[in-house]
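yo

u said u wanted the structure for the complex thing, so here. seqs first:
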Amino acid sequence: MTAPIETTQAQAAAQPEAILAGAGRKTIEGRSLGQIAWMRFKRDKVAVAGGVVVILLVLLAVLAKPIESVFGLDPNAFHQDLIDPSTTVPKGGWGGMSMHHLLGVDPQYGRDLLARIIEGSWVSMIVATGATLLSVIIGSVMGLIAGYYGGWVDSLISRVMDIFLAFPLLLFAISISASLQDGAFGLAGLKLRICVLIFVIGFFNWPYMGRIVRGQTLSLREREFVEASRSLGARGPFILFRELLPNLVAPILVYSTLLIPTNILFEAALSFLGVGISPPQASWGGMLNSAIDLFYADPEYMVVPGVAIFITVLAFNLLGDGLRDALDPRSK
Amino acid sequence: MNSRKATAALALATALALGASACSSDSKSSDNGKKSSSSQGTSAAKDAALTGIVNASDQKGGTVVMENSDVPDSLDPGNTYYGWVQNFSRLYARTLLTFKPAAGKDGLTVVPDLATGLGKASPDAKTWTYTIRSGLKYDDGTPITTKDIKYGIERSNFAPEALSNGPTYFKAYLAGGDAYKGPYKDKNPNGIASIETPNDTTIVFHLAKPFADFDYLATFSQTAPVPAAKDDGAGYVKHIVSSGPYKFASYQDGASADLVRNPQWSQATDPIRKALPNEIKIKFKVNANTIDNNLLAGNTTVDSGGTGVTPQTQAKVIGPKYAKNTDDSYAGATSYLAINPNVAPYNNADCRKAIEYAIDKVSVQTAIGGPVKGDVATTLLPPTVNGYTKFDEFATPDNKGDATKAKASLAACGKPGGFTTNLTARSDRPAEMAEATAIQNSLKQVGITANIKSFPAGKYFSNFAGVPSYVHQHQLGLMLTAWGADWPTGYGFLDQIVDGSAIKPSGGNNLQELNDKNINAALAAAIANTDAAARTKAWGDIDKMVVDTATVVPLIYRKNLLYRPDSATNVTITQAYLGMYDYLLLGSSK
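structre next:
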């Protein structure tokens, strides 16, 4: 996915591999690995574009509530006068688009779609990033331990991973969401639903991360720097988290950015099955789900959240690919 | 001689039918071509089948093709609770009484089927006697006796271990009904003592308490005769013995069934069935959108479920091209909001009234799909139930809610700033979730914050809204539900939702926990009254008493948008069977 590296003159100057003592430079500096990766990343226009979109989406999610209040958007306000009562579809073409409702309104209630997309962004983002964080933390720790210690520890953790991978996740998600209707764990309503979604999605996806980290650790632990620190008397935890983990940041970071879009889609799928966020809270998956029944009559209602999810998934994927190429050029 | 005449008549009818169908395919190309074959009855127009018989025809022949998006609970007349199976089973299982196959209000009239007349009641309405016609036969030629009817009731009501689906009203009302264990466990050949069969044509029911609606129970498919020798419990559905004009040529569990003429049935013993089609085919588990497309193409005669077209198709058929073939019929059910007075602040009547006034019922109606899906309700009884009386106790302008009155009620109840409450709905019922969303928005306008709690429909009454202790503990003040009657009278509708005895530790339907001694007494008095007119009036009065307590907010009289293809003949809505088409009348020109 990287843009081909063209050795134009300007870029040649930026080649990290080239050892430069150019006339323009006052001092000669070595570059850290991070700097080198950042320079590679910057050259990848597609990845940068993905990254920009991701930053915008995160800003949108974080600032959803202020944006709504500044522009006077209310995601839950009804405008049923804009609905044709005999079909419940918005009056006029294009899902009721107008100056007041730039993306139109939803059928049945006439709620502003732009406001609901903005409102839904923070739910989708928080669920996706929260679940990703959960799987990354569990997966990294378990993968490190399994890979470093080996033997029966490795066997045990690997079998646990197999069990998790074989677990009928969707059934479990439906049953846990259905059984936790009311308050639980001191949480209630929307907070509880979000936590349940994060748990369900995150807790069952960690073995993928675990396997990647375990594989990398298996090869890393035989390297000289690990041998060296062990011979100097370093203990397990120190080696795991101070020696091995920094060397695993690249694959972990890359895999995380690829996991986020998967989790956004998973939230959508769970909402689609009716076990996601409860109404009237907007979420992209929930919007997509309720658009199904009126797909032929009001296709625009499906297009809006569909495009939002599409852009997000694409942006994260491009960013992830770019990061992988930048951090680990051998993987190309 | 006779048979040759019949053959000639059949040949003639077939020729006519072929001609008619050729005619209709011609007229299809010229869009506004009217059916000339329908001499009497109503021609196709929007909602024509609500009050008339569309495409009336006397021609025998044709095949009625039915499709269903699901499977029936059972086609066994003794093991079903589905409204459409009650309607459908009359083709092969005759009952003591049934509803008149007729258009409009006439369809609510109870008429004799196997019986020679309606039930003869004792003055205390506790003993009911029926006499059945002579010369009745099963499809194997053996005679039908009242003993078989008694056996049919015993197996369907008292043997939940084998036949668990149907209602158990006979068990509830018959004397000694709670003690009898059913024909599979209790091998005493005399069966339950409170049903007497002094001879082969008489059957007498002795009830534990007065029950003037008994004729309606006698319309249940459970009163269809079942020969004990042929019965093997749950397996009977695979070889149902027919008493009606059609018998099973084939039956595949969960897939399809094929009904053909029963030569042992005689028109002379059956004044209500015309039995026009030669064959009736039904297919199960057909995708709902596929059914609709088949209806539009005329390949299917009717969607047997009778719950109307899908939202996709609805948007299509309200257009001018198809509208004349649609009927927007009352489903015999009311959606309402139950307010539990045992949950604060609803112990105060003014807080309940605030809810009554605050709700914009038009907004609720729009959310569930507009006037096509239902009319705004002001009473619990829907218009198609015997006893419906129109009134509006908490009237608001255009039914759009009255914020001023609601706020005044809130002030009177000591909560001028509003309050926070819980609102429950069934998560897998999209219409109910839409109602909840709309009500939540209405209440917000007057300062009441309603948090929606959704529960799966299968556990709604058994574990959540129908369990008073759970409701009190979790402060579920507002609960959405919908109710349709098992038989279309005020008692059949109200008894299970407003009588104090319907409050159960679990699984009850009296969500508002209404236990008003005046209402209980009025129900008991009315159901003991054998004067039908007085009884019918009483249901409306009781309905009003209930709404006056401000513990229920009637929201919507549910409607279904049904589609009838041009090839369907004798199409009319039967109000007695949840507003679906009458399957006894339905024929096909194909």
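Residues 178 and 275 of chain A are 7 Å apart (CA to CA). Residues 1-14 of chain A have pLDDT under 50 and may be disordered.
cya
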